[in-house]
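To illustrate the input format used throughout this study, we show a single complete record. The first block contains the structure-token representation of the backbone; no residue identities are included at this stage. The design step must infer an amino acid for every position from geometry alone.
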């Protein structure tokens, strides 16, 4: 899959075969019932990206998680382990943001809506999460979860991990990335000491105050103290998300 997170050694290194990447660093294991909106996007049964459950048939993820012609993709929900358990559903359709493109190997308008071929059985382990109406202020506590790498060049976690971060100052984040990419108001940054998302966490949920505020998109390194993780700002894309749901 094409997981996005920037690992700079002397240049940007892609976390998957073609893109940048993310993972949960400095995390702790949690049961799926603690984050029941978390989903795993899988290619031929292998975890590639995270996603957030919006309803029993609609999920939200990062646009860069899908190739131009996705084949063999399914979604696993309701399981703490990425390899088995829970429910597995086929993907019926995907709408990627019309403005999605890449600049310096970083996805812009990095958001997509998924429609499943069947409805999920909602319970304590499979639950939807509401979309944020506004961008949370700097310093707001948040959490990010997934099955990504537990450190740079480290293995993926088989068990769901979560870590606590806080919303970063947008202007400071923009300054940090000034030589790499232009951080826009459509992006939200979050960080914590030694805590971050990483490779194979792309598309996963950033949650604050019980609402989906961000979608894991990219970052430089994993838990780099100088570079917060960058997420799709869900509040800014909410009109597009609701329109895509109507069209899908």
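Output of the design step:
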């Amino acid at each position: 899959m094409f997981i996005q997170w920037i690992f700079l050694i002397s240049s940007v290194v892609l976390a998957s075969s073609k893109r940048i990447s993310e993972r949960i660093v400095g995390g702790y294991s949690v049961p799926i019932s603690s984050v029941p909106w978390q989903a795993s996007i899988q290619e031929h049964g292998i975890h590639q990206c995270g996603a957030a459950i919006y309803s029993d048939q609609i999920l939200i993820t990062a646009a860069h998680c899908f190739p131009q012609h996705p084949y063999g993709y399914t979604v696993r929900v309701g399981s703490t382990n990425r390899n088995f358990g829970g429910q597995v559903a086929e993907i019926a359709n995907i709408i990627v943001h019309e403005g999605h493109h890449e600049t310096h190997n970083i996805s812009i308008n990095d958001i997509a809506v998924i429609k499943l071929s069947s409805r999920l059985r909602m319970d304590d382990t499979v639950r939807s999460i509401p979309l944020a109406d506004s961008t949370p202020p700097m310093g707001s506590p948040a959490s990010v979860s997934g099955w990504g790498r537990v450190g740079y060049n480290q293995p993926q976690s088989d068990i769901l991990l979560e870590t606590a971060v806080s919303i970063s100052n947008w202007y400071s984040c923009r300054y940090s990335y000034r030589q790499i990419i232009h951080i826009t108001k459509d992006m939200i940054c979050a960080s914590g000491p030694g805590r971050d998302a990483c490779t194979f966490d792309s598309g996963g949920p950033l949650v604050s105050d019980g609402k989906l505020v961000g979608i894991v998109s990219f970052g430089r390194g994993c838990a780099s103290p100088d570079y917060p993780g960058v997420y799709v700002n869900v509040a800014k894309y909410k009109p597009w998300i609701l329109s895509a749901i109507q069209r899908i």
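Structural context for interpreting the output: The domain at 7-17+20-28+129-235 is CATH 2.40.10.10 (Thrombin, subunit H). The longest strand covers residues 87-96.
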